[in-house]
Amino acid sequence: MLEELLSRMWPEVNRNQCHIEPVNGLTGESWRIRAPGNDCLARGNTPQKRVLGVEKQREYRILRQLLPSKLAPRPRGRWAQWLLVDWLAGEKLSPTAWCDEVANGGLARRLRQLHHRPLYGYPLNLRARYAVYWQASDPDRRCPAWLRLQQQFMRKKMPAPLHIAPLHMDLHPGNVVRSVDGELWLIDWEYAADGDIALELAALVKGNGLNVFEQQALLCAYCAGAAGYCAPLLQRRVAAWGPWVDYLMMMWYEARWGQTRQQQFVTASTPLRLRLGLPF
Fold this sequence. Notes:
This protein is α+β, with helices and mostly antiparallel strands. The protein is built from 11 helices and 10 strands. It is 48% helix and 16% strand.
């Protein structure tokens, strides 16, 4: 299928001139493709990834909308389950560089730019995600306490949104690239959707285990360039989304365990289960 994608996208290029190498990630493999005049990333989709909420047609349309923003790689085309985007020249942030960008406001600045963009037109439905992830989880790991928690999150009122905006929803050091000119670019937009900015910030805080000082630096930097927001208000809204984010992350790991039986997902799920009061 990848060869057919190349034939459709670059019919003029001799296949012997193409260099293809895998790029690994938690949801499966992507491929870097280098050919004369081209350096791209081919991101595939699978039934497993679709269960997780990944849809390449949606991602392609979102990336096209983001073209003027210079926040995301340029989409080159889409065919069948494949999405082709420009390969960004630069380096993914190291843990040290990530901490620096959180502290100096670089990451907050790029997030503000994203959150001021027009909506994608794809609202995030957390309850739908919870429901699908539940079905994808391992029945042997379910228990009455987990069922009660699932029902609780499916019924209770969500936090009031502070501002609905386009979100990335998967920010971590591996998804931020510093280009050769020093700018930060966001990659891997598989989970992008419209939602509350406080939810995005809560996902960033929780997903990366930011401590109190890092969280304060992030939120203060975000508010410094966002008229109408103050750090204490944003902190309260982010805290309100905390349990929802914990449950979303736990459910994602449980769904991945159900799909793959890879121990890393049980290991990642365990502290979240404990935090939510579930047995592990």
